[in-house]
Specification:
By secondary structure, this protein is α/β, with parallel strands linked by helices. The chain has 2 domains: 205 residues, no CATH class; 117 residues, no CATH class. The protein is built from 8 helices and 6 strands, in the order ααααααααββββββ. Strands 1-2-3-6-4-5 form a 6-stranded mixed beta sheet, with no helix packed on it. The longest helix has 80 residues.
């Protein structure tokens, strides 16, 4: 019986060298990091595209509604103007004829908005004053509320339409970015299938280069805080899920990834300002600079006597905490509010949860028109009426 011959490879050829094992681990970490960043980027881009698409539809609807209301108010204003003109012409005719009783009847029919202009016209005595304005409807103090309302609604419609166009561009950008993240995901995944070191290195460099290109060309327009959050999540996932990682390293990786989540909902401007409670009471339009608070509570009181808010835009932000804005009772308010996580209670409207957006206009009959742009990372925003 022939004997079996057993050939044993030398031990140093059967076991991978320490350098090879270290290099493999570095490649695995790099691939896992790219996979994590690309997966997170795809999920984030899809979420942002859906969010901006929804915001786009809402802004276009608001623009259409505002313009429809503006047309209705303009029609009512034209009717009011025609009524005033007809009543005045009849009053002028009977007054010329000397019929004081009928003249008094037509005068009692004058609308309250027309009466100041009529009284001014009578006081100017156009029959003996060449410089007097011929018709009351041309007087500077002749103001039709519906006409003012139509103008305000038309401006609101224009702002909402421009905001809708901007939201459309944002949604398109995020859909475009998703394609590049998918390419990075492909490169990171396929790199694990190559044993030849130069090819694996080239593929990983290409994937990292695409991420760098997205950042350098501002295709991905993330704030500094958001980039920190993405980096922490990517590094944490890479540490936690690289093969052969066990125990404390997995826990550490998960904790690092969780630490990056709050940074995704905090813009750079939310990191500005102090800590604690701050109360702002602007006395003039020059004091209406952006109000910033990093952490704590921010109070903005806009009810100071003599403060001109007509046409003003007030910006305020807080990173972590509560914000209270008090507006005058007789002021029309157009508001655009964002809360990363928390509650928004804006003049009777309330929403809560994550990535909360509240926008609208209160009314169009006030003596002033104010725009509010408020932002909070994590916390509550309240807007209330004051005296």
């Amino acid at each position: 019986m022939p004997e079996h011959v057993h050939v044993h490879a030398p031990h140093e050829l059967n076991e991978p060298s320490e350098a090879t094992t270290r290099r493999e681990r570095l490649f695995e970490i790099a691939a896992a990091l790219l996979l994590s960043l690309a997966t997170l980027g795809i999920a984030w881009s899809g979420y942002q595209a859906a969010k901006w698409s929804g915001l786009q539809a809402r802004r276009y609807t608001e623009a259409s509604t505002a313009r429809s209301q503006a047309n209705r108010a303009a029609t009512l204003a034209a009717q009011d103007r025609t009524r005033d003109l007809l009543n005045f012409n009849r009053w002028l005719e009977v007054t010329t004829e000397g019929d004081t009783e009928l003249a008094d009847l037509y005068e009692r029919r004058f609308r309250d908005e027309f009466r100041p202009a009529f009284e001014r016209r009578v006081a100017d005595d156009p029959l003996h004053n060449e410089n007097a304005i011929a018709s009351p409807i041309d007087e500077p103090n002749y103001v039709i509320a519906n006409s003012v309302k139509a103008d305000k609604l038309e401006r609101l419609g224009d702002r909402r339409f421009e905001a809708g166009k901007e939201a459309t561009e944002h949604a398109d950008d995020y859909v475009f970015v998703t394609v590049f993240f998918a390419v990075v995901l492909f490169f990171a995944g396929i790199s694990l299938r190559f044993a030849w070191t130069p090819m694996r290195t080239l593929i990983l460099v290409l994937g990292a280069g695409i991420l760098g290109l997205l950042s350098a060309t501002d295709v991905v327009d993330l704030s500094y805080a958001a980039w920190v959050g993405v980096a922490l999540i990517g590094i944490g996932l890479a540490i936690a899920f690289v093969p052969r990682r066990r125990g404390l390293l997995v826990v550490l990786g998960i904790l690092i990834a969780l630490a990056g989540i709050p940074a995704l909902v905090v813009d750079d401007e939310l990191l500005q300002g102090g800590i604690g409670e701050s109360t702002e009471r602007p006395e003039s339009a020059a004091d209406l600079e952006p109000f910033r608070q990093f952490m704590g509570k921010l109070n903005v009181d806009l009810t100071a006597p003599g403060l001109d808010l007509d046409g003003a835009t007030v910006e305020a932000s807080i990173g972590f905490g509560d914000m209270l804005v008090i507006v005058p009772e007789d002021t029309d308010v157009t508001f655009d509010v964002h809360v990363g996580a928390g509650n928004a209670r804006i003049l009777g409207e309330e929403e809560n949860g994550f990535d909360v957006d509240v926008a609208g206009v209160t009314s169009t009959s006030g003596s002033q028109e104010l725009a509010l742009e408020l932002d909070a990372g994590i916390g509550d925003i309240r807007v209330e009426r004051g005296p």
